[in-house]
Amino acid sequence: MSTPWLQAQELQGRHVRLEPLGLAHVEGLRAAVSDGALHRLWYTSAPAPEDVEAYVAQALLEQAQGSSLPFAVRALASGEIVGTTRYCHVDARNQRLEIGYTWYAAAVQRTAVNTECKWLLLRHAFEQLDCIAVEFRTHWLNQRSRAAIARLGARQDGILRNHSRMPDGSLRDTVVFSIIASEWPAIRQHLLFIQEQR
Question: H or E stretch including 86?
Fold first, then answer.
């Protein structure tokens, strides 16, 4: 039997530790999603506090199927769980994946947390998993998310119109960005520079 391409492991930086997601993280994620009422932002995928356990269970099911690898995000300064992110839409054969399902408590938004999480995930994807491309996707109307992805150095590939249905029944236009392996060395330096400024 071959070894799975993605294997659960911790990724740690100066500000955050990405821990393999588990049911032990449910209470911390409930507190995080409540900070800023993230589930009320109609263009995000953050669950309501009462749905966090089912959200985690679904993520773990997808991990067992080999299509994702979810993480809880722990802020090292406070020791608290402040959000979640994951590798998803994994294509092991073609060594491609997406970084998505990312949300953070309001208290850590616009801090070093997101940049360092992306740095850890991208470095692992390109330097350990030997990815040929890493994608990011977001709602066309989520201007904050689009700007944050662009700041990483990802390029916009296109827009998938009427791509999926939102929980409220509306149709989502999905903006697709990516970073390819040949771009990683320059983006690596860019992200290191950004982190040094914080």
Answer: strand 81-91
pTM for the whole structure: 0.93
- Closest C-alpha to 142, from 31, 50, 38, 35: 38
Distance between CA atoms of residues 13 and 198, nearest Å: 13
Work out how many domains the chain is built from and give that number.
Answer: 1
Distance CA 127, CA 79 (A): 28
Residue 20 belongs to a domain? yes
CA contacts within 13 A on the Cβ side of 111: 14
H or E, element range at 26: helix 26-34
**pLDDT tens sequence across 157-166:** 999 999 998 8
Domain span at 99: 11-196
C-alpha count within 13 angstroms, C-beta hemisphere, residue 159? 8
pLDDT digits (tens, 9 = 90+) for 69-113: 999 999 999 999 999 999 999 999 999 999 999 999 999 998 899
Structural contact between residues 95 and 131, judged by C-beta atoms closer than 8 angstroms? yes
**Bridge partner residues of 65 (DSSP):** none
| CATH code, domain carrying 134 | 3.40.630.30
SS percent in the chain: helix, strand, coil, step 5: 40, 30, 30
Give yes or no for a contact between 122 and 191, defined as CB atoms under 8 angstroms apart: yes
